[in-house]
Amino acid sequence: MSAPPHDPPVVEMQVWGVDRVLPALGRMATGRRRLRGVDGLRFAKLLGTGSGRSFTPRDADPHHWAVLTVWDDDAAADAWRDSALVRSWDAAAHESLRVRMTPLTSRGRWSGVEPFGSEPFGSGPAEPWSGPVASVTRARLRPTRALSFWRAVPPVVTALHETPGLELALGVGEAPVGLQGTFSLWRSSADLVAFAYGGAAHRDVVRRTAPSRWYAEELFARLAVHEVEGTHGGRTW
Question: How many separate domains does the chain show?
Answer without folding.
Answer: 1
